[in-house]
Amino acid sequence: MSTTTAVTPLTTSDAEALVAAAHRAAEAADVTVSVTVLDAGGHLLAFRRDDRAVLISGETSTRKAFTALQLNAPTADLVDAVQPGGPFHTLPTALDRPLLFIAGGVPVHRDGRLIGAIGVGGGAPEQDHGFATAAVKALA
């Protein structure tokens, strides 16, 4: 008989804390962003778009989070994988949301298990990645 340890799922409180931490990091850099947090099933738990952020940044943050969740990896680490000859170059895009291979999506783990993802859009890709990473570190 095997036993498994239950992992606490990503809660709405966790999601709100992730959004707040990402926004604090973006505000400190004077960058306006949108932030999306998804649970392990890909369901929206929290979202925030700065008034000054462009509208498309909301879709961008959601697709970054979805990509990080589906592939269980930071989107910054996946950019080279979609280049011709890369392992994801021919990855089907028949998913309910297209994947987005631009830095700014980061999976969220608890006790070594995937429990959700955060996506940040609106700044330069490297900035978005930094904001998302800072938020995940703040949650830990």
Please state the CA-atom Rg, rounded to the nearest Å: 15 Å
Q: Which bin fits the share of residues in helices?
A: 25-40%
Helix and strand string, N-terminal first?
Answer: HEEHEEH
- Oligomer kind: single chain
Contiguous uncertain segments of 5+ residues: none
- Major β-sheet strand ordering: 2-1-4-3
Q: How large is the share of residues in beta strands? A: 15-25%
State mean pLDDT (0 to 100 scale): 86
Protein name: Heme-binding protein
Organism: Streptomyces lasiicapitis
InterPro entries: GlcG_carb_metab_protein, PduO/GlcC-like, PduO/GlcC-like_sf
Structure notes:
Helix content is 34%, strand content 19%. It is an alpha+beta fold and 140 residues long. The chain has a 4-stranded antiparallel sheet. Helix 1 packs across helix 3. The model has no long low-confidence stretch (mean pLDDT 86).
Q: What would you say about this model in short?
A:
The protein is 34% helix and 19% strand. The chain has 140 residues and is α+β, with helices and mostly antiparallel strands.
Structural key phrases:
140 residues, alpha+beta, 3 helices, globular, Heme-binding protein
Describe the secondary structure blueprint for this structure:
Layout (H helix, E strand, L loop, with lengths): L11 H17 L5 E6 L4 E6 L6 H16 L33 E6 L2 E9 L3 H15 L1
Antiparallel strand pairs: 1-2, 1-4, 3-4
Helix pairs in contact: 1-3
